[in-house]
Amino acid sequence: MQKQRLIKCFVDSLGVESSTVEGLTYNSVRQWDSVGHMALVAAIESEFNLMLDTDEIIAMSSFSAVSEILGKHGVASS
Amino acid sequence: MRLEGKTALITGASRGIGQAIAQAFAREGARLVLSARTPGVVKLAHQLRDLGHEVEAVQGDVSDNESAKTLVQLCRSRFGQLDILVNNAGILTPGNLGMVRMEDARRMFEVNVLAMMNLTQFSIRLFPKGEGGSVVNMASIAGTQGIAGISAYSASKAAVVGFTRAAAKELASQRIRVNAIAPGFIDTDMARQVSPEWFQKRVDGILLGRIGHPSEIASCAVFLASDEARYVTGQILGVDGAMAV
């Protein structure tokens, strides 16, 4: 369920197809540039009601990396 | 009311310029989250609430990363978004060259520069997507002109100027405007901490013939934060009564 919420964050903030999200990496598509990255961060923070540190934001280089970082905030990846 | 429906986060809001900005923003209809190290910020929030304004206050050190996060989280939980950030918190420790403690200089950069940058990074995530927002930083005539006797403070405020101009360029695509106010000599506790001789010398150098009032900075902050300034970004607005330094 939480994984679907995370995928929706990607879809809503980056405008990508949900089927592509799990394979995405930073800058692999035009939409996930530095501006899109901040929109994604804002969407995730709002959806899961948390604040990410700058180091975490920099480390969010792929969908799996984002999932791992959110896991540290208690957001399950399933 | 020029700020009706907008949410503003103001740091250093317990006294002086920050307090005046908080009062002016409230009068203009903004919802407020106020921050300061001293308990005066809580008292100010009570006063503004008694007048019917929506205000939250947090006592804390904005240069502390967790405190900064907490502030922004409060904006989200209480008001759902943020439209205006006023990076006003600042400290001044005077000292002539040769007698400037690096510890003091470092602390000024932590509060005046790094806290501003950090809070800006946190805050812009809450700005409404596509609708932009406004960041107002507090620079100083010391940062634009340099003032003898406060070289470290001058350097920190020059950094505020540089950050403001760079951030304005970087955030323009998100319709986020970033401007700064560079006050001259304003009648605050900070201005009063200098020697009487230094104080008089500064007033004598103001062509309008008097020290400024915090409300005169606040009115400029309202302008920069409002939609009246929707085409203004990357600017450093000197508010100094034509002060010579």
Write the layout of secondary structure elements.
The complex is a heterodimer of chains A (78) and B (245).
Chain A: H1 2-14, H2 34-48, H3 54-59, H4 63-72
Helix pairs in contact in A: 1-2
Chain B: E1 7-11, H1 16-27, E2 31-36, H2 40-50, E3 55-59, H3 65-79, E4 84-87, H4 102-123, E5 133-138, H5 141-144, H6 151-171, E6 176-183, H7 189-192, H8 196-204, H9 214-225, E7 236-239
Helix pairs in contact in B: 1-9, 3-4, 4-6
Key terms for this structure?
heterodimer; A: 78 residues; mainly alpha; Non-ribosomal Peptide Synthetase Peptidyl Carrier Protein, Chain A; B: 245 residues; alpha/beta; Rossmann fold; 9 helices; 45% helix
Overall structural class of chain A, as computed from helix and strand content, comes to: mainly alpha
Order of helices and strands of chain B: EHEHEHEHEHHEHHHE
Superfamily (CATH H level) name of chain B = NAD(P)-binding Rossmann-like Domain
What class do helices, strands and sheet pairing of chain B give? Answer: alpha/beta
The helix fraction of chain A, in percent, is: 55-70%
Outline type of chain B: globular
Number of strands of chain B: 7
Largest pleated sheet of chain B: 7 strands, parallel
SSE sequence of chain A, one letter per element: HHHH
β-strand number of chain A: 0
Which band does the percent of strand residues of chain B land in?
A: 15-25%
Mean pLDDT of chain A: 93
How would you characterize the overall build of this protein?
The complex is a heterodimer of chains A (78) and B (245). Chain A is mainly alpha-helical and 78 residues long. Helix content of chain A is 56%, strand content 0%. Chain A has helices spanning 2-14, 34-48, 54-59, 63-72. Chain A is globular. Chain A starts with a helix and ends in a 6-residue tail after the last helix. The mean pLDDT of chain A is 93. Chain B has 245 residues and is α/β, with parallel strands linked by helices. Helices cover 45% and strands 16% of the residues of chain B. The longest helix of chain B is centred in the middle third of the chain and has 22 residues, at 102-123. At the A-B interface, helix 2 of A face helix 3 and helix 4 of B.
